[in-house]
Every structure is written in C-alpha cells, then in structure tokens.
Amino acid sequence: MGAVSTVGDRAERTPKQDRSRATRQRLLEAAVACLAEHGWAGSTVSVVAERAGVSRGAAQHHFPTREDLFTAAVEYVAEERSGAIRALFPQGAAGDRRVVVAALVDLYTGPLFRAALHLWVAASNEDQLRPQVTELEARVGRETHRIAVDLLDADESRPGVRETVQGLLDMARGLGLANLLTDDKGRRDKVVTQWTRLLETALRD
Predict the structure, then answer these.
(1) Highest-confidence range of 34-43, 53-62, 126-135, by mean pLDDT?
(2) Which among 40, 30, 56 is positioned nearest to 126, based on CA atoms?
(3) Read out DSSP for the chain?
(4) Could you tell me if 119 and 71 are in contact, meaning their C-beta atoms sit under 8 angstroms apart?
(5) Rounded to two decimals, what is the model's pTM?
(6) Terminus-to-terminus CA distance in the chain, angstroms?
(7) Which of 98, 129, 160, 183 could bond to 196 as cystine, CB 3.0-4.6 Å?
(8) CA 112 → CA 35, 45, 156, distances in Å?
(9) Which residue in 101, 104, 127, 129 sits closest to 116, CA to CA?
(10) CB neighbours (10 Å) of residue 174?
C-alpha cells in the first residue's frame, strides 16, 4: 500500500509542478509585456496577474515582491533572447559578420529592451530595486558579449579586439534607444553595414 501511495503521490506532484512552471512563465511573459507597454508606474502585480490570467495570490506565491517579479521577468526574456540568437547560428556564423551584427542590433530593438529600459529608469530611483537590476545587467551584458565574441570569431587576445566588440554592443544599444522614438530601419541598416566593414578590418587576422 505504501509503495502504491508513493507512486500515486509522485504522479500527482508532476502535473502540479508542470502547472506551476506554466503559471510562472505566463507571469514572466506578462510582466515584460506590461513593462514594455506601460512602464514601471503602470505595471503593478495586479495588472500583470490579470494579464497572465492568474490571481494576485498566485502571482505573489511565485514572486513575493514586485521587484522580484520584474527582475525575474527581464532576466527570463534576456535568456530566451540569448538562446534565440544562438539558435540562429547553430553551426556558427559561417563568416557572415553582417548577419551577426544585424542580429545583435535586433536584440536592442524589441520589447525586451523597452522593458529593460523601464526597469533601469525605475532602479535609478528605487533603492530596493537597484542592486538586483545592476547585478542582472552585468550578468546579461557578460553573456551578450560572450555570444558576440563567439559568433564574430573574435580573438580577444589581440589588442583592441575586446574593445571593438564592446563598442559594437554599445552602438547596438544606442540604436535601440533611438528606436524607442522612431523606427528608422533604413538608417539602422546603413549603420549595420558600416559597422560590419569596421569589424572586418579590426578583426582581420
């Protein structure tokens, strides 16, 4: 009887765990969408819970504080975006650095960047939020840099290469900021082409 009960308990727990993971993911996705659309002031736990289709209590079960929810949300989508860009080049970039540069720029022109920007602005005024966001940004920045180095086949042991890759990411972030106001894709494409030329020269063996 004990063995049967244990198996039954395990079988019952598995669907519960699956439902819990699904609820958590819905909350994270809803939090990022709310932050991108409404900013920090308009993105309360109640608003996020309603958008995710769960109760406020369920939201607070997964994320006890508002800061926990939004920091986890941006981190979750950042990891998803990192995985997505690696998936674009499963065998490496095959030497096409322009495609890589364009993909890296795209990281900073989507809803994730909008959400992250709202979080950064909030963190500059919220003492409770600032340490979490600072740590998150440092971690995401390091991961994005590693992805860029791998995809560009950049040798950072050579003088100036690390700074060149970081300059690319800083440029991409600047284009993302400009994109918040106007979608200037034509100008962005020209900048991507020019940066690719500069990278080809800087990274040439």
Answers:
(1) 53-62
(2) 40
(3) -HHHHHHHHHHHHHHHHHHHHHHHHHHHHHHHHHHHHHTTTT--HHHHHHHHTS-HHHHHHH-SSHHHHHHHHHHHHHHHHHHHHHHH-BTB-TT-HHHHHHHHHHTTSSHHHHHHHHHHHHHHH-TTTHHHHHHHHHHHHHHHHHHHHHHHT--TTSTTHHHHHHHHHHHHHHHHHHHTT---HHHHHHHHHHHHHHHHHHH--
(4) yes
(5) 0.76
(6) 70
(7) 98
(8) 9, 18, 28
(9) 129
(10) 13
Q: Are 82 and 143 in contact (CB under 8 A)?
A: yes
- Judging by beta carbons within 10 Å of its beta carbon (0-12, 13-18, 19+), is residue 10 exposed, middle or buried? exposed
Phi and psi angles of residue 92, each rounded to the nearest 5 degrees, phi first: 95, 180
Quote the mean pLDDT of the chain. Answer: 84
Per mean pLDDT, which of 56-60, 107-111, 113-117, 128-132 is the most reliable? 56-60
In which residue are the tokens 């819905």 written? 26
